[in-house]
Amino acid sequence: MKKVLMFITAICLSGTVLSAQETSLRLTAPARVISKKAPAKADSTGMAIPDDSPSVDVATTKPKSLVDIQHDSLAASHKIIYIDGKPLSNNTQQHLDSIRTLIDNFYYDQFRHFQDPAAPYFLFMSKDASLAMGIGGCVRMRGWYEWGGVVPINGFSPYFIPMTPSPARMKRFGTTPSGSTLFFRVIGRNKMLGNYQLYIEANFNGYQGVDFHLKKAYATINNWTIGYASSTFSDPSALPPTVDASGPNNKISPTSVLVRWMKPISKRWTVAASLETPSTQPALTDSVTEKVDDWLPDAAAFIQYEWGRSEHVRLAGILRTLPYRDLVAGRNHNILGWGLQLSTVLHPAPAWTIYANVCGGKGYESLGGDLQMGNYDLIARPGHEGELYAPAAMGFNVAAQYNFRPNLFASVTYSQTRFMPKHDVASSEYKFGQYVAANVFWNLTPRIQVGAEFNIGMRQNFDGAHRWARRVGAMAQFSF
Fold first, then answer.
1. How far is it, in rounded angstroms, from Cα 150 to Cα 67?
2. Average pLDDT estimate for 287-298
């Protein structure tokens, strides 16, 4: 056990080491980014060392954000192990660029979230840099203290704020390893297939936060993805950083088995479309309505404009078929559900990052946020036994992040979700919720991160009753 702990600590704390069979990775920035000042120097092995000065995007001459600088630091924190012999010229710029392109694929994709694990420290790579394989993950520990009424889940969700809390549950201290992750990824290029990648991720969650669950499993070949992956309707990279696992209460974050086509149609524009396995959540009444098996896939699409490596604006939409059976009339019905989301992430200045999104629709409630905690895709129509309809809902989120240094930043997030049924509902039903998070994160090394956060949330019902909840939390994360 002592040797295992020493090995993990070495991975988290170590710089770059060179041995006879392993080559350290000290890479320059991607080809489209250049330094304002002197070019990159070289270390004793002849491999390029990136300059610490600010850099700019060649196409826009815009200073690189501190967020991207931190990503570059993390992307350089790898040890390359060649699986088919050491390359003859491993210090040429062409070879370095090929390696960097492969590693960037671990960090810059359309569906990467702040809480997703970093690329593995050890990367197995072919000597021509056409294939990379890694097994990695993170150990993540969270702790929190809440008072004034306990939210009865590990995440901080306004939906679960108790309106009449028990005197026995007014405050609580909790911890969880939930969110600790293991993953396996292969990225490569093939003359016949083109670019491809395989990805499997599982984390510890579920009962008491220690059950092992599959989170993602998919294959991508060129523009096509098939498998268990983030929905095309989501935009994880536009969600702000939080210590709390739940995040903003309007967060759209479904994962499903899908077939997706995604293609850049120009230097700045990308489009995508997918068919996704549905999972609807209607509110049913015994002896009056009955659930019908989902029989038609959800159809999702987005169009995105991007002007920087980590800046974009995206418009996404989804269409759903919501089936149910009317037991009174003895008929099956299929109701149309739909949702729209406009999201963005941008860097107005090198130290600032802005995250924002707004979403709305009818019958899309089970796809994320507070309302996925209940059955709101279809609800009963008062005065018409056996009839259900798709109610409306909307939500928004806005957040600002300020980087004091590339590895030290603070952020503030505000989000809200509103349930807007067309007809009357029970007075004790959820009407809207508010979520606020203020936090600070510090990357002690590229692979060790700690954070602290204050959360405050409010739930209000249709009868006007409302209640606030508060939480302070902390997190420590070790990536390998």
1. 35
2. 94
